[in-house]
Amino acid sequence: MFTGLKDYKIYCHSCMAFYLLLNAPPISYTTSEPERHQEYRASVTFVSSKPHSSSTDDIKPYINKRKYKLAQGKTKDYFTLVNGTLCFTQGTDIPYMQRFNARRQSNRCECHQGWHGIDCGQPEVIWRAFMASREKLTLQRRDRPRKIIHGLAVNFEVTLAEIILNELSQVVDLFIVCESNYTENGDSKPLYFYNRLMGGHLKEIQHKILYISMNFKQVRGNVNYIEMREYLWKESKPLIEDLSPDDLYVSMAVDEIPNSKALLFFKLYDGWPEPIAFRLRWSVFGFFWQHPQRTAIVPGGCTIQMLEGVYGDNPFKMTEDARGYQEVGSELPNHYLVIGDLNHYGGWYCNWCLEPRDIVAALQQSSTTANSVIKWDNVGSKIDVPYVEDLIGSGLWLDGTTQLLRKSQSRDSYFAPEYVLNNSWTYDSLLVNFYSKLDY
């Protein structure tokens, strides 16, 4: 018999030992609460990495000492010439073409399942978005890849931030990460993400990270993330040397993970309409629960030219005219190209995907506004760690009434981002519900 939650957790982890050992790469487990380091005073920091060195001295930040020049690749690196036909490598069954097309004298690219287009360069979510838009498009392959800049603000969600950076690191050219040492209600807090960088995390991609600290209290009340989105772009843009009008800027919350295949398409092709929005799978507490009535439709990207000319160079205004469009069946204004539908998602929204203690801390250090999706009258004052653990185990949303849908990794092709699935040992708490008896 179990004498308490602690004994039950030990039993659960024992039951899962074989699963975890099978999926364990040589990487240490990360938690959502970093160690505290020395006080940070600079406002803008470039983090430079030397991947093969373990010394923290090698990843000390450069503070306003140089401009940042984005790398410029070649589009042809993403394509393969087969039997005289140029095909998108990732989306094409090249061995099949090499075996059969030469004999049949066919110059058609043979696409993998889930890929479309003449050169197999359109992933399923892009192809469906174009079909749904019913616009006549003239898509053209670019000579050079479009540069992509992704700006995000971090509070407690350090683990989710690391997932985003690793999931998109092969597509995004520069991540601008903004972190404040104040909460929405003005309380001071550690710079969690910065401390992780100084501890050696993400050292393989730190050369792509422009870190900005917002070390002053917000002046507009509980609009922390709104002001951070504006601030990070204002501070970082002058430091980027080679921005082009057709480069893509992505502005999404740290718990919103866009589909990397969709971003890669935007990187390699011209002729698509903008601005871009993503229909995200609404996961709760982890990828094992899904909200039954909601899907997140998140405006998230446009070119630098549109950002400057239409939105006054303010990333938040890019999303302002479409806030609240999150109910299933709701639609965005017609000028958005929406990536993803109810069966093929444009990414993941991982709602409250934190450790229970961090969920409680986030709720305590943020304001509960009247238009919150959580019914706070039903919750009352019972939010504590055991209460949150019970919600995760039973699959109830934070309102204490909405029953979440149980999802299966084996049956759901959009269960979680690829990086999370490939690193299941590190992110096991997001893949397996350790608080549910039914999972064992």
UniProtKB/TrEMBL annotation:
Report the superkingdom from the record. Answer: Eukaryota
Please give the Pfam families that the UniProt record associates with this protein.
Glyco_transf_17 (PF04724)
Spell out the InterPro entries in the cross-references: Glyco_trans_17
One GO term (biological process): N-acetylglucosamine metabolic process
What GO molecular function annotations does the UniProt record carry, in alphabetical order? beta-1,4-mannosylglycoprotein 4-beta-N-acetylglucosaminyltransferase activity
Q: Which GO terms describe its cellular component?
A: membrane
Protein name as it appears in the record:
Beta-1,4-mannosyl-glycoprotein 4-beta-N-acetylglucosaminyltransferase
> Could you tell me which species this protein originates from?
Ladona fulva
